[in-house]
Design goal:
Strand content of chain A: 5-15%
CATH topology of the largest domain in chain A: Rossmann fold
Radius of gyration of chain B: 20 Å
Strand order of the largest sheet of chain B: 1-2
CATH class of the largest domain in chain A: Alpha Beta
Oligomer: heterodimer
Order of helices and strands of chain B: HHHHHEEHHHHHHH
Radius of gyration of chain A: 22 Å
Structural class of chain A: alpha/beta
Strand order of the largest sheet of chain A: 7-8-6-9-10-11-12
Number of helices of chain A: 12
CATH architecture of the largest domain in chain A: 3-Layer(aba) Sandwich
Distance between the termini of chain B: 11 Å
CATH class of chain B: Mainly Alpha
Chain lengths: ~400, ~325
């Protein structure tokens, strides 16, 4: 009897948990109102850019029916995803389609997301929007989509080895470019320090994981651009730390022991600010550390948390400040960029990605051919944060 | 428990203290960066919430139960507190009280489910763990006020900052409060009715009930105390985390529970000490902070922490066997 009771309770618990992770998206309604202003600005920007844009393929697009799309985000953890949902809402309103945002509790809950995707596919939707937490875990689901003829549009994170016929278009930031943008801007500030250094210097990079493709590309994009820039000025480079990124680095020409510059890559065991902070701290507390890059919101906040005690970040590299560069936005990172703790950061355009994902899905549901829509990563610092082209992407 | 006088060397708390000193020595020897004052400061910053959770969960563990809802609960209360400050203009002090109150409420819920309705603690707190996790996810990512912002004074509870920027001096006064709380709760555990009954429930619940103890009431209170400390932990957590992220927190309870076991609480209940928890947590914190400094990838930290736990529990079991043989 007792065992039966236990099983019954276990089932109840499972039901409760599935309810809590279901698509309860309370902030959505509030967000759409607030978004009205920022969206106008975004819309202006978009019309000016449209000419040379692959987004031009959507000109005059109308939905043949009132489609409904399940949209899988990685979580509702950060306001980043809420900005993406804002963009989706805007596109859905324009096209007269609807969507359901869904996502697991945190970006590490890979299995939860796979379950949600399978449930969504089982309902045979006319299309599926997907930002995969772990790109290798969704292969089976994508195969099923291909078999059932459900067009998939990936946004934010692409799936490189997607089964034939499943993903019809990608709406993703060109993460290699975005990482490179961070490297270029950072290098401008530390160039002289590297040139005049006696002995080895360290550039740190904190990546929240080594499994998601966008983080992988961004991390490697930063490393490879940095290697290129340093070598162009006649110095030698080594990459150390996390194995994935060490292997992904191209062109490092020295051993860790005798390189002029070591790019030290850290990945925490879990994607939490605390663990990112501990990793950042270990790098920042090295005397010869001259710069550090946090490659997404969690990692960048980890760097800032580490700096709360160490107080080594600043914008004057010549005076011995360690140069910090962040990625994405959120009020903490924005404040750090504003007051010079961070030299600057790179922002993606979650709003635009959500927006184009709905457009691409609608086109695919209509039966049209759809092309990939790459969106750029933009550098922002204290001088251009208010610019019309930047401000709408800097979510709180 | 044997009444035989024990030598200090057989006291697990003493062994763990030696481990703390040894780990500090090894890490300091291997990394000169680890030897800095700032490292100690950061280690302490991130230890407060773990320690507060651990002090709380020591009591359910002594009764032979467990509270799995402390990690997600802590994050949930911090999120709700933060949302109240950010979106509703509530003063920080009220948000802090709300954290503690929510902790106590979930504690009561756990206590009633376990003590009165006889649900297994693992299952009952697994449910509240899911509930708090889900409830926390309804909020958006929320930063509590920063040190220099209005309402940022609460950071000074844990770390006194004198001066600004690079010339600032920082004092981890939170450590002092932790020592006081640990001594207080050690006293409560050993010298009050509540504490002795907690141990009695853990040793033999039926016997405790037969001897006239209001077992139900004290069993509920054990979880209320745990909830109270989880509420306090939420404040400490908000003070060190730049942005409290919804959906996180699962897994944080494991550090706290692990620390308690390292500190020598019997895996079967009926024995334990808050002082042991105190040193146990620092073993976990030292591993967490120290291993990245000696260049080990973070995954190793979890593997090594797991191994340390096995050793700690084995020592406990061997000791029990010896005691039984005497």
């Amino acid at each position: 009897m007792k065992i039966k009771k236990l099983i019954a309770l276990g089932l109840c618990a499972a039901m409760v948990s599935s309810m809590t992770v279901a698509p309860v998206f309370a902030a959505e309604e509030e967000a759409t109102e607030e978004a009205a202003e920022t969206e106008e600005a975004a819309a202006e920007e978009e019309t000016t850019e449209e000419a040379a844009d692959p987004a031009a393929q959507f000109e005059g697009l109308k939905a043949n029916e009132a489609y409904e799309f399940p949209m899988m985000v990685k979580s509702f953890q950060s306001t980043y995803w809420q900005a993406a949902v804002e963009g989706m809402q805007k596109a859905a309103d324009e096209l007269g389609v609807t969507f359901t945002p869904q996502g697991p509790n945190s970006e590490s809950d890979i299995a939860d997301q796979v379950n949600m995707i399978n449930t969504a596919i089982a309902a045979k939707p006319v299309g599926l929007g997907l930002a995969a937490c772990d790109t290798s875990s969704v292969t089976e689901a994508l195969e099923k989509c291909a078999a059932d003829g459900i067009p998939v549009v990936t946004f934010d994170t692409g799936v490189a080895d997607a089964p034939e016929g499943s993903v019809v278009a990608e709406v993703v930031t060109d993460n290699t470019q975005a990482g490179a943008v961070a490297a270029e801007n950072m290098y401008g500030a530390i160039k002289d320090v590297i040139a005049n250094a006696e002995g080895q210097v360290i550039i740190g990079e904190v990546n929240q994981d080594a499994t998601a493709q966008n983080i992988q590309m961004r991390g490697a994009g930063f490393i490879n651009k940095m290697i290129e820039l340093i070598q162009a000025d006649g110095k030698t480079v080594a990459v150390a730390g996390n194995e994935f990124y060490v292997n992904a680095a191209e062109g490092a020409d020295a051993k860790e022991a005798d390189a002029d510059v070591v790019i030290q890559v850290a990945v925490p065991a879990q994607t939490t600010v605390e663990l990112c902070s501990t990793e950042a701290q270990a790098i920042l507390s090295k005397e010869n550390c001259i710069a550090i890059f946090g490659s997404n919101q969690v990692a960048a906040e980890g760097v800032l948390a580490a700096n709360a005690n160490l107080n080594v970040l600043g914008s004057d590299a010549a005076a011995g400040d360690v140069i910090g560069v962040g990625f994405d936005a959120g009020s903490i990172i924005k404040a750090a960029v504003q007051d010079g703790t961070f030299l600057g950061a790179v922002t993606q355009s979650p709003l635009m990605m959500g927006y184009y994902a709905i457009y691409a899905l609608t086109a695919a549901a209509n039966g049209d051919e759809v092309e990939d829509v790459p969106t750029a990563g933009y550098w922002y610092d204290a001088t251009n944060m208010e610019d019309e082209s930047i401000a709408p992407n800097l979510y709180d | 428990m044997t009444k035989k006088k024990k030598s200090i060397l057989s006291d697990q708390r003493f062994i763990v203290l030696i481990v703390v000193i040894a780990l500090t020595a090894v890490f300091s020897f291997m990394s000169k960066e680890f030897r800095q004052y700032n490292t100690l400061l950061s280690l302490l910053d991130f230890s407060y919430y773990d320690l507060l959770m651990a002090i709380g969960v020591t009591f359910p563990l002594i009764t032979g139960g467990v509270d799995l809802s402390i990690g997600t609960g802590m994050v949930c209360y911090a999120l709700i507190g933060g949302t109240l400050i950010r979106s509703h203009g509530v003063p920080v002090v009220v948000a802090m009280l709300v954290c503690v109150l929510l902790g106590v409420l979930i504690g009561i819920l756990n206590g009633v489910l376990i003590g009165v309705m006889n649900l297994p603690p693992f299952l009952a707190t697994l449910c509240t763990c899911m509930i708090t996790r889900g409830a926390g996810s309804l909020c958006t990512a929320t930063p509590w006020p920063g040190l220099t912002q209005e309402g940022g004074w609460f950071h000074s509870i844990f770390k006194l900052t004198i001066g600004t920027g690079r010339s600032a001096d920082r004092y981890p006064i939170g450590f002092l409060w932790m020592v006081i709380l640990v001594l207080l709760m050690e006293f409560v555990l050993n010298h009050t009715k509540f504490g002795r009954y907690t141990i009695a429930i853990g040793s033999n619940k039926e016997a405790a009930a037969l001897s006239g103890i209001n077992v139900k009431f004290y069993h509920v209170m054990v979880y209320v105390v745990c909830g109270l400390f989880t509420g306090l932990a939420a404040i400490a957590y908000a003070a060190v985390t730049p942005t409290v992220q919804p959906g996180t927190g699962a897994g944080l309870e494991m550090d706290a529970i692990g620390g308690v076991f390292v500190g020598g609480v019997a895996a079967t209940g009926g024995y334990g000490s808050v002082l042991g928890t105190f040193v146990g947590i620092f073993v976990i914190m030292l591993l967490k902070t120290g291993l990245p400094y000696v260049g080990l990838q973070a995954n190793w930290q979890q593997i090594i922490t797991g191994l340390v736990l096995i050793v700690a529990v084995l020592i406990d079991i061997i000791k029990e066997k010896k005691a039984a043989a005497l």
